[in-house]
């Protein structure tokens, strides 16, 4: 019988696509991210924590708003003129459907982060890298979707990424090593995941040249659980970000790649595969730090 996450202790669900985690579910989420952070540490990745917003002007350089208008979420604020604020405060600002009537808004110059790794390319913009850089960050990412489902598809979700920026072969070797590391881990714990070539979720893909390029020469490989759910991906960006943000390695546009983990989706895969009762999980998970005393996670 399929696992009903809406009835599981520790998982609260809001129909606007957001989850509330507590107890075992929250502890598991933290453990999974600690595991990914441990993997990042094995290559000496430097850890960063970025703001929730990213400048719209930086995403525009990637043609993001034409490629992914259906996914983007903007932080919006009211126009600060006293007249408008008085009008807003006096009016019935929420209608019967729960929609806020904003009126005039301040200019929108930021976007809620859609992918954790974008911040690195902005940060290292205009730099010459003397050595390949290994980096990691975790972010709450925001993507609007046609529908939502607990842990599987959410408006906001946790993404851990491990990134390398360097020369082409440096990046390719990095991605190959991480794929082998992840494959060993999945085999060790008995979590069935298939590796499948994929493309980014472009808007109107048949008219987007980036989609056609990815179909001809795949650069994204997803870790697919249960035949349908991508819980992570390995991405070879070629020198796209290097050219866009003027990052250089050995005098040429730098290459980049990342390993991305959707942490809530990994949690879903573990609950689906091993069940909601951690006491019945195989002992191999304890040896990897995935199962254990919940008291240690508080």
What features would you describe in this structure?
- There is one protein chain.
- With 298 residues, the chain is an alpha+beta fold.
- It is flat.
- The longest helix has 22 residues, at 168-189.
- α1 (23-42) packs across α9 (263-274).
- Helix content is 32%, strand content 24%.
Return the CATH class of the largest domain: Alpha Beta
Number of domains as seen in the coordinates:
2
Query: SSE string, helix = H, strand = E?
Result: EEHEEHHHEHEEEHEHEEHEEEHH
Oligomer: single chain
Residue fraction in strands: 15-25%
CATH architecture name of the largest domain: 2-Layer Sandwich
Any idea what the CATH superfamily of the largest domain is called? Bira Bifunctional Protein, Domain 2
Structural class: alpha+beta
In total, the number of strands is 14
Unreliable parts:
202-206, 211-218
Can you give me a brief rundown of this structure?
The protein is α+β, with helices and mostly antiparallel strands. 32% of the residues lie in helices and 24% in strands.
List the helices and strands and how they pair.
Blueprint: E1 11-14, E2 18-21, H1 23-42, E3 46-48, E4 53-55, H2 56-60, H3 64-67, H4 82-90, E5 110-112, H5 118-123, E6 128-129, E7 133-142, E8 156-166, H6 168-189, E9 193-198, H7 209-216, E10 220-225, E11 229-236, H8 240-244, E12 248-249, E13 252-253, E14 255-262, H9 263-274, H10 283-287
Helix pairs in contact: 1-9
Features:
2 domains, alpha+beta, 298 residues, flat, 10 helices, three-stranded mixed sheet, BirA Bifunctional Protein, domain 2, seven-stranded mixed sheet
């Amino acid at each position: 019988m399929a696992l009903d996450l809406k009835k599981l202790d520790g998982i609260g669900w809001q129909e606007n696509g957001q989850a509330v985690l507590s107890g075992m579910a929250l502890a598991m989420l933290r453990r999974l991210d600690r595991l990914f952070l441990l993997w990042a540490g094995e290559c000496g990745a430097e850890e960063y924590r970025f703001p929730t917003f990213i400048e719209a002007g930086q995403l525009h350089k990637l043609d993001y708003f034409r490629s992914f208008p259906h996914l983007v979420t903007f932080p919006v604020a009211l126009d600060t003129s006293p007249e408008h604020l008085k009008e807003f405060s006096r009016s019935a600002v929420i209608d019967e459907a729960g929609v806020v009537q904003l009126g005039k808004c301040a200019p929108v110059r930021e976007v809620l982060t859609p992918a954790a790794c974008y911040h690195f390319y902005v940060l290292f913009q205009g730099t010459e890298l003397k050595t390949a850089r290994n980096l990691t960050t975790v972010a709450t990412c925001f993507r609007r979707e046609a529908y939502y489902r607990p842990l599987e598809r959410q408006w906001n979700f946790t993404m851990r990424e491990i990134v390398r920026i360097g020369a082409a072969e440096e990046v390719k070797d990095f991605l190959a090593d991480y794929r082998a590391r992840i494959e060993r881990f999945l085999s060790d714990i008995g979590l069935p995941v298939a590796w499948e070539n994929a493309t980014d979720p472009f808007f109107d893909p048949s008219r987007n040249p980036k989609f056609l390029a990815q179909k001809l020469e795949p650069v994204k490989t997803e870790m697919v659980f249960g035949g349908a759910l991508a819980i992570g991906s390995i991405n070879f960006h070629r020198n796209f970000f290097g050219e866009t943000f003027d990052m250089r390695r050995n005098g040429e546009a730098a290459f980049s790649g990342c390993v991305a983990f959707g942490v809530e989706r990994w949690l879903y895969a573990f609950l689906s595969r091993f069940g909601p009762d951690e006491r019945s999980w195989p002992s191999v998970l304890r040896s990897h730090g995935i199962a254990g005393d919940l008291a240690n996670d508080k």
